[in-house]
Amino acid sequence: MKYISLAASLAMVAAWAAPATAQQWPTKNITLIVPLGPGAGMDLIARLYSEKLSASLGKTVVVENRPGASLSLGATAVAQGEPDGHTLGIATTTVMVVNPVLMKQLRYNPKTDFAPIAIYVKSPFVFIASPKLGVKTVPDFIALAKKRQAENNPLSYASLGAGASQHLSMEYLKQLYKVDILHVPYKVTTQAVGDIASGHVSSGFSEIGAALGLIRDGQLNALAVSSSTELPALPGVKPFAEAGNAPGFELVSWHIMLAHAKTPRPIVDRLHNEMKTIMADPVLTQKISDMGLLPYTTPDFDGINKYIASEGEKWGKVVRDLGLEGSQ
After folding, report:
1. What percent of the chain clears pLDDT 90, i.e. is strictly above it?
2. Which of 103, 139, 217, 267 is the most exposed place for a label (fewest CB within 10 A)?
3. 157: helix, coil or strand?
4. Edge to edge, what strands does the sheet with 87-92 contain?
5. In CATH terms, are 26-123+252-321 and 125-243 the same topology?
6. Distance of alpha carbon 253 from its chain centroid, rounded?
7. Whole-angstrom Cα distance, residue 205 to residue 181?
8. Which residues contact 308 (CB under 8 A, 6 or more apart)?
9. Average pLDDT, stretch 275-290?
């Protein structure tokens, strides 16, 4: 009679258990971690597609907001969570390719801690200013900023903290026009935008979804968008390259759904296919476009990895050119 070693037995059990787990998944509600506060464009989109994902998976997808730490709190929660597919997260350009260059130390590794599921939207920014400034064009804003700098009373700008895409975009603007504008960091997009509208802060780059209502109500002045083309949600607002006479100016973020790196591959594959189906819904894509964001058909897994690598080169250069590498 032949005996099977304990190690071999455990290996066979693991081999049988992994497919079974994937087939039975999900066995409980799924948490989708959003690294921004309620009301941001990312949050609004997540709540739209989470309803569809809940219906297709047969379990509730609960959106949980964890803003802060240059968007890294959410990524850290996914990286340190259980690899069973019940904790998912949304990450951005900042999390995946900026923080690794900007930060001295991170509690997650974007290359090894995550299983990318789908890149599903691109997020241009709108450059906004408080109406109290009395400026409606980029040249007027820059002229005022230089005047205030000379008076030792600089204008200010809001962002979601050092390394956030909005912060880097504004620092790029400062370098481009050789002007000093004071940085005021926030944890929540809606609060930052609200403080610009009220005049507590002068300006900033914002996710369009968070600023659109205030722009339409005349409580914010939209000076330019950071994409290379105009956006249907903001007709007449020119791309920064044109509005600011800055050829080549284009800085957009993107949203990616992630799971823990050790999540069983069948679960990752299913989520990838579910997101492709959901994001092909014309009603959903129209709602996303109406927010001023750009729906994006996710590449396959190889394409996702190549896209992240190319974005890493671009944004890494921005961080280094601004002299911010390892500064946080």
Report:
1. 73
2. 217
3. strand
4. 61-65, 30-34, 87-92, 253-260, 114-123, 294-295
5. yes
6. 6
7. 13
8. 96, 97, 110, 116, 256
9. 94
Q: What is the mean pLDDT of residues 151-159?
A: 97
- State the average pLDDT over residues 121-137: 95
If one counts every other C-beta atom within 10 angstroms of the C-beta of residue 44, the result is 19
DSSP state of 133: G
Tokens of 131: 């109406």
- Top CATH class, 26-123+252-321: alpha beta
Q: Where are the alpha helices (DSSP H) in the chain?
A: 6-24, 41-57, 72-79, 93, 99-102, 138-150, 165-177, 189-198, 208-216, 240-243, 265-278, 282-290, 301-321
For 135, the token pair is 């400026």
Q: What's the pLDDT band for 17 if we cut at 50, 70, 90?
A: very low
Q: What is the mean pLDDT of the chain?
A: 91
CATH number of 125-243: 3.40.190.10
Two tokens at 291? 């927010």
d(CA 24, CA 106): 34
Question: Could you tell me the residue ranges of all domains in the chain?
Answer: 26-123+252-321, 125-243
Q: Output b/e per residue, 112-130; b: 16+ Cβ within 10 A.
A: ebbbbbbbbbbbbbbbbbb
Query: What count of residues does the chain have?
Result: 328
* pLDDT band (50, 70, 90) for residue 212: very high
| Per-residue pLDDT, 22 | 63
